[in-house]
From TrEMBL:
Bias-annotated ranges (Basic and acidic residues): 1-20
Ranges where the record places region Disordered: 1-26
Primary site of residence: membrane
Domain Integral membrane bound transporter intervals: 214-339
Keyword DNA-binding (UniProt): no
Keyword Hydrolase attributed: no
Protein known as: Fusaric acid resistance family protein
Highest taxon, organism lineage: Bacteria
Signal peptide: none
Cell compartments where the protein resides: Membrane
Organism of this sequence: Leucobacter luti
Alphabetic keyword roster: Membrane, Transmembrane, Transmembrane helix
InterPro entries hit by this protein: Memb_transporter_dom
Amino acid sequence: MESRTSGESLRPEAADREHSAPAGPPAKEWSRRAILILAAKLLVALLVIAAPAFIATSFVPGVSGVAFFGVLAAAFGWISGGPKIGAAVVVALTGLGVISILLREHTWALALLLVLLGVAYGYAASRGVGKAVLQLPILTPYFMNDPPALFSDPPIVDARYLIGVSVVMLLAGIWTVVVLSLAAGTRHLARLDVPNPRIPLEYGAILGLFSAIVMVVATLSGLQTHWVWITLTLYVLADPQQLFTPAKMWGRVSGTLLGFVVVSALALAGVPDGLLHLLALPALWLCLVFMVIRRPYWQYTLFLTIAVILMDTSDVDTQLLNAERIGFTVIGAALSILVAFLVNLFGFSRVGLSAPERV
């Protein structure tokens, strides 16, 4: 999806408009000076954004982990469509996160919520604004799988906890939107032309159904797994227009694997956990820079993977987590291919993966 930042004109590429790393002009259209200025602005912005959360964590355990969700939702919402979209995504994710935590013992209710999120994404995509809500089905499952620790670890889910999570996420998210807007200018949401709105609706519904099935199977099996990496991959690879894009899938898988290699090297080097959490900030910074200047997809994915893994507060061995996530990334990629096949089968009455050129 195309979005614009004041002072820079960004053109969409038709083959990659709905990708998580938005399409746009090749990197060579950015001068080195412009890239350095943008990178400096975003670095200062992230330091200003992160400082309150890390300071607060010294007094209230878990604040930085909860704030990370608000920052992610706000940052990608801002990139997708500006401050209003960023703020709306944060508010929506906060509500969905609290609902998911409250329903954590009701597997089928959570499954229904995932289906509805898929349908909502499909509806937004059919209106040409799917990217604006993409972070909701990506991040909501994290609250279902493992509610973020706050005040204590594991958290005690009571009124104090739920209010605390809501306040931290909202403050972190709104603060992120304000700082990014001041540092890097204004961005605007642009609608895509959708020739056949029915196809994104079917696509989103199938994504939601597959996400629900993954969650139900993982939950009822009783295994302590990070199944959310499957649903994350499903939506990160989501392409309601082209359905299947080999280059994007390869970029996602290769970037993720490289991210695992980097994190594994840090773990093997004996880097302390506290420092690992701090390193998530520069990883997120590089992710945002590469996303805005529209670098190859694998580069954006590499740094996003590093940031997400380094912010994980699980006690599970890092190497085991990496192996699990690699497997789940491959499963998610395979399921995304199956989704494209089913949409072609039911939506276009044909056998194939990519959408027909003219629909």
